[in-house]
Write a structure and sequence with these properties.
With about 220 residues, this protein is of the alpha/beta class. The protein has a single domain, classed as P-loop containing nucleotide triphosphate hydrolases (Rossmann fold, 3-Layer(aba) Sandwich). Strands 2-3-1-4-5 form a five-stranded parallel β-sheet, with helices on both faces. The relative contact order is 0.19. Bound molecules: P1-(5'-adenosyl)P5-(5'-thymidyl)pentaphosphate. The site of P1-(5'-adenosyl)P5-(5'-thymidyl)pentaphosphate (T5A) has 24 residues, from helix 1, helix 4, helix 6 and helix 8. P1-(5'-adenosyl)P5-(5'-thymidyl)pentaphosphate (T5A) binds next to helix 1, helix 4, helix 6 and helix 8.
Length: about 220
């Protein structure tokens, strides 16, 4: 296991459309410009098995009718795979890991959203993650109307939606509130970022925190 202080592992979390991928690209570019090795991954996905699971999990098909319990184990299976196949080898080479969602998504969506017990989810996450946790987690926080507007805009651009995006407003409010609880529970690791501002303003906040935490 890596020593905690050497972990250069950052996760980005938040509701759909909050700007996670946009901010990861910004941070990745900045770290690469400093000559740092960076591995960027997404969850679910980023391994051959994980990408198959991602397609299944995102597909909005009545025949699949994925039960909440099946959904939980599919997300965990993708995580178990990416930890062993990509994250652990990269950390062993002292690379940065930037992860578009990680274990906190399970606490927020399957815990807050679907109602599974947080204690149970933490135990399952421990198995999937081999005890690994990000050193720093940014939760990009956006109100539901703003998030829905960004999703609608992206849908118009790409023509693509997905299964979880079809959930109710109450579901997404519970997800947002679960992220808030995580930030209160672990304020050192989990940082709430106001994602309603411009891309540049959000990126500046993130860089300030990253450079302070990692001494850049
Ligand atoms: N899930 C995942 C679980 O339920 N449990 C789990 O354990 C895990 C791992 C994954 C789904 O699976 C669920 C959560 C999700 O429902 P996903 O595609 O990885 O799906 O996740 P999404 O959150 O849906 O990813 P998105 O691509 O929708 O959102 P992002 O990455 O947060 O947003 P981004 O950067 O693509 O930006 C969205 C749009 O907004 C614009 C961008 O240009 C883009 O058009 N934008 C801004 N506009 C104005 N101001 C800003 N500051 C902006 N930043 C970005």
């Amino acid at each position: 296991m890596m020593r905690e202080e050497l972990l250069r592992f950052i996760a980005f979390e938040g509701s759909e459309g909050a700007g996670k991928s946009t901010q990861i690209r910004r941070l990745e570019t900045r770290l690469l410009s400093l000559g740092e090795p960076v591995l960027t991954i997404r969850e679910p996905g980023s391994t051959p098995l994980g990408e198959c699971l991602r397609r299944l999990l995102k597909e909005s098909s009545p025949e699949l009718a994925i039960a909440p319990e099946s959904e939980l184990f599919l997300f965990l299976a993708s995580r178990a795979q990416v930890v062993r196949q990509a994250v652990q080898p990269a950390l062993a080479k002292n690379s940065w890991i930037l992860s578009d969602r990680f274990s906190d998504s399970t606490l927020a969506y399957q815990g807050g959203g679907r109602g599974f017990s947080p204690a149970l989810l933490r135990s399952l996450n421990d198995i999937a993650c081999a005890g690994l946790s990000p050193k720093l987690t940014f939760v990009l926080d956006l109100s539901l109307p703003e998030a829905l507007a960004r999703i609608a805009q992206r849908k118009r651009e790409s023509g693509q939606g997905d299964r979880i995006e079809e959930e109710t407003a109450e579901f997404f409010e519970r997800v947002r509130s679960a992220y808030g609880d995580l930030a209160r529970l672990e304020p050192e690791r989990v940082r709430l970022i106001d994602a309603s501002r411009s891309v540049d303003e959000v990126a500046a906040d993130i860089w300030e925190i990253v450079s302070c935490v990692f001494g850049l």
